[in-house]
Amino acid sequence: MSDDARNARDAAAISTWRRWRMGELRADRENVATEAEAHAAQTRRQGAQRQQEALDALREQVRRDAYEEGLRQGREAGHAEGLAQGREDAQREADAAFEHRLEEEIAPLRELTSQFNEALTALDDAIADDLVELALATGRQLAGEALKARPRQVLELVRALLHTEPPLVGQQRLWLHPLDLRLVEKTLGDELAAAGWRLQPDDQLSRGGCRVTSESGELDATWESRWQAVRDQQRKRRTRPATTGATTE
């Protein structure tokens, strides 16, 4: 190496050299401590950030799980409610269909029942009328037989007519069957004569009956008329309930 090169190297070394001081070591330690503290602070921040992120993630997961659970429960509740509503609607429709079908089935039966009741009523009326006619016929026969057995019943009839109020005006004539006339004349002749009655025979009259005539009118007490009065009275009794029911309605 030449002297010039050696001299240049030494000069460069001298120019870079400086004296060491105690403060420089302290400063280096402080720098190292500051860097370590900064690193630790950064580490703590990063850890806190990771913890916060984990906490946020956990909260989000809990929120999501709660949402899913609520949604599931809502679906189940809605499904159950829908099923209940569906059952109720189906039951209502079934009841309506049953009522409609029942009405369709019963309507003809109701009409038949009404017709049957009307037929029964008519039959009852017919039977009742037949029974009444039978009773009247039987009664008439029994009454006729009673007249034959007790011909003096005509005397009671004549006495009742004799005391009828008000009496007929004018000459009064008592018409009787010839056989009854002899019985009445024998028993009540004087009483009838005192009242001014005259006895007249009429072989067209049935025994047990009579007629009283005068200028002012007539009293018909023949057997036929009295029996017809009984029949009319019986008919009135049978028709009175129907007439009353129609008036009430």
TrEMBL record:
GO terms for molecular function: cytoskeletal motor activity. One of its GO terms (cellular component) is cytosol. Pfam families: FliH. Residues 39-54 have a biased composition (Low complexity). GO terms for biological process: bacterial-type flagellum organization; bacterial-type flagellum-dependent cell motility; protein transport. The keyword Cytoplasm applies. Residues 32-54, 204-224, 230-249 are annotated as: Disordered. It is found in: Cytoplasm. Its main location: cytoplasm. Keywords: Bacterial flagellum biogenesis, Bacterial flagellum protein export, Cell projection, Cilium, Cytoplasm, Flagellum, Protein transport, Transport. Transmembrane segments: none annotated. The keyword Cytoplasm applies. Residues 104-229 form the Flagellar assembly protein FliH/Type III secretion system HrpE domain. PANTHER family: FLAGELLAR ASSEMBLY PROTEIN FLIH (PTHR34982:SF1), YOP PROTEINS TRANSLOCATION PROTEIN L (PTHR34982). Needed for flagellar regrowth and assembly. Belongs to the FliH family. This is Flagellar assembly protein FliH. It comes from Halomonas halmophila. The gene is fliH.
